[in-house]
Design goal:
The chain has 275 residues and is mainly α. The chain is 84% helix and 0% strand. The protein has a domain at 1-140: Helix Hairpins.
């Protein structure tokens, strides 16, 4: 609401300048037409002029000039501005029209002067009210569009985060399967190699040596398997650490981007959407 009022203030000020100019022109014309200063002659016993005073006040002060009942007149520029303000607000302005028409024996001049001013003033006030209403409607529409853009951006961010999470899970699963397959193949190849070697030794008839060699080979095989598993485990942990580091960097970049988007004003987001 406060933002809407701030936007309307410059528009009201611009239109107020036009209203002030209209008041100034009509005040100057009114001072020329309806002044009661000497030596201007006018009818002092107008009933509409006395109607602005109470009967007791007229009898008590023995007022003979109806102009004395008026709190403002066209004898000065400020007084004429005050009379026009009364006409603009429609505060008993019909009495003013007939009073000055009777005083100067020219009802036509009075009607043309006051009615034209009243029409222009009402038109300008209605124009200001309509513009303010239109500004309120446009600002409300813009705020709704900005809110919709922010909601869409949040939805897109959540979808991107979910996609990145699914991709990281699939990548980690596939890599783990690949490591297990490589380890199994390597173990089977090593086992087949040891089996063929033992078989060739047995064929040569070296039974005693074959037993010792089997034990030594088994011990070597167990040691080599342990070393192989150890190296594979280190390699797997290193790759997992790389994946975790990559995910952390992606999350940090996304958070920075979200913070940057939040720092942007609704006006900038609305301009981006229009582009």
């Amino acid at each position: 609401m406060f933002q809407k009022i701030i936007i309307c203030v410059p528009i009201v000020i611009k239109l107020s300048v036009i209203i002030v100019i209209i008041f100034y022109i009509y005040s100057a014309i009114g001072v020329e037409l309806f002044t009661t200063l000497k030596p201007i002659e006018y009818n002092k016993t107008g009933l509409y002029g006395f109607s602005m005073c109470s009967t007791k006040y007229v009898q008590k002060n023995k007022i003979k000039d109806s102009t004395q009942c008026n709190y403002a007149d066209f004898n000065s520029f400020l007084g004429s501005m005050l009379v026009l303000l009364q006409v603009c607000t429609a505060a008993g302005w019909s009495n003013i029209v007939f009073d000055y028409g009777y005083k100067f024996d020219s009802l036509l001049n009075s009607i043309l002067f006051f009615n034209s001013f009243h029409f222009i003033a009402v038109f300008m006030l209605s124009l200001i009210g309509g513009i303010i209403w239109e500004v309120f409607t446009v600002v409300e529409k813009i705020m709704e569009d900005i809110q919709a853009v922010e909601e869409q951006q949040e939805l897109l961010n959540s979808i991107e985060q979910q996609q990145q999470l699914l991709q990281s899970i699939n990548f980690e699963t596939n890599q783990n399967k690949y490591i297990d397959i490589v380890y199994t193949i390597a173990f089977l190849e090593k086992k087949n190699y040891n089996y063929l070697r033992r078989f060739s030794i047995q064929k040569k008839g070296e039974d005693d040596d074959s037993e010792e060699s089997d034990e030594s080979e088994e011990s070597k095989e167990s040691k080599e398997q342990l070393q192989f598993k150890y190296h594979l485990g280190i390699e797997r942990e290193f790759k997992l650490q790389q994946q975790q580091t990559m995910l952390n960097k992606m999350t940090q970049n996304k958070n920075n981007q979200n913070n940057q988007n939040q720092c942007e004003t609704p006006k900038d987001l609305f301009i981006k959407k229009k582009k």
